[in-house]
TrEMBL record:
Compositional bias per record (Basic and acidic residues), positions renumbered to this chain: 12-21
Annotated HTH tetR-type domain residues: 27-87
Coiled coil stretches, renumbered: none
Molecular function per GO: DNA binding
Name of the protein in question: AcrR family transcriptional regulator
Residue ranges of the region described as Disordered: 1-29
DNA-binding region: 50-69
TM spans (from-to): 176-198
Keywords attached to this entry: DNA-binding, Membrane, Transmembrane, Transmembrane helix
Length: 229
C-alpha cells in the first residue's frame, strides 16, 4: 500500500490548480480585450476610460492586458487600428471591381451606411479621436496604407463610369468618400437628437431604409450630374 502522505499522492492546492488550469488562448484573450476596450473608449473617451474596467469587461487579468498591449495608450492605438482594419476588410469583401460602376458605388454607399449603423461605437470612437485632435492617429503609419487602396478603388470606379458615360469625370475620390462616410456617420452619431428635433424615430426600420436609399440616390445623382448642368 502506498504511503498516503507521499508527495506523489497528496493533492495539494497547488497541484489541484495546476491540474484544472486551462491552456491560455492568447488570440481569444487579446480579441476579448480589444472588444472590451473599444466599448470603454467609445463610451468614456480616452481620458475617462479605465484599464481596470476594460479588464473586468473582458474577463481578463489586468496583467495580461499589459502583457499583450503594453499600456493604455498602446491599447487605444490597437483599438483604433483594429476599427479601421475592420471596415477596410468589409470594403475589400465587396469585390467592387466585379460590378459595373453604378452597382459598385451603390454597394459601397450601402455598406458604409450599414457599417456605421451596425457599429454605433465606431462613430463614437472616431469622435473621441477627433477630440484628441488625432494625436494618436498621427503616430500610426499603418493607417495611410489602409486608406490608399480604397481611394484608388474609388478612383477606378469613377474612371470606369466616366468611360461609359455613366459618371462625370471631374470627381475627387477623397472628397467623394468623405461625403459617402458623412451620409452614414452623421445619421448614426446624431440619431437621438435628430429624432427629438424632427419628431421621428430615426431608428425605425422604415426610416433607416429610407435614409439608406436617400444616401445612395444623392451619391449617384452627384456622379451623374454634368458640370455646369
Amino acid at each position: 500500500m502506498s504511503d498516503p502522505s507521499s508527495p506523489a499522492t497528496v493533492e495539494t492546492p497547488r497541484r489541484k490548480a495546476e491540474a484544472t488550469k486551462r491552456p491560455r488562448n492568447s488570440a481569444k484573450t487579446k480579441a476579448s480585450i480589444l472588444a472590451a476596450a473599444r466599448v470603454e473608449f467609445a463610451d468614456r473617451g480616452f481620458e475617462g476610460a479605465r484599464v481596470d474596467a476594460i479588464a473586468d469587461r473582458a474577463g481578463a487579468n489586468k496583467r495580461l492586458l499589459y502583457h499583450y498591449f503594453g499600456n493604455k495608450e498602446e491599447l487605444y492605438r490597437a483599438v483604433l487600428l483594429d476599427a479601421y482594419q475592420e471596415i477596410r476588410k468589409g470594403e475589400r469583401a465587396l469585390s467592387l471591381d466585379q460590378y459595373d460602376p453604378v452597382q459598385a458605388m451603390d454597394r459601397l454607399v450601402r455598406f458604409t451606411f450599414r457599417h456605421f449603423l451596425a457599429n454605433p461605437w465606431f462613430p463614437r470612437l472616431l469622435g473621441t479621436e477627433n477630440i484628441e485632435n488625432a494625436r494618436f492617429l498621427k503616430t500610426m503609419p499603418d493607417i495611410k496604407a489602409l486608406h490608399s487602396p480604397l481611394v484608388g478603388q474609388i478612383a477606378a470606379i469613377i474612371e470606369r463610369g466616366a468611360a461609359t458615360g455613366a459618371f462625370r469625370r471631374d470627381v475627387d475620390p477623397v472628397q467623394l468618400y468623405i461625403s459617402v462616410a458623412a451620409l452614414g456617420f452623421f445619421y448614426v452619431s446624431n440619431t437621438a437628437t435628430l429624432s427629438v428635433i424632427f419628431e421621428r424615430d430615426l431608428t425605425s426600420v422604415n426610416m433607416v431604409q429610407e435614409r439608406e436609399a436617400h444616401a445612395v440616390q444623392m451619391v449617384l445623382d452627384f456622379l451623374r450630374t454634368k458640370p455646369g448642368a
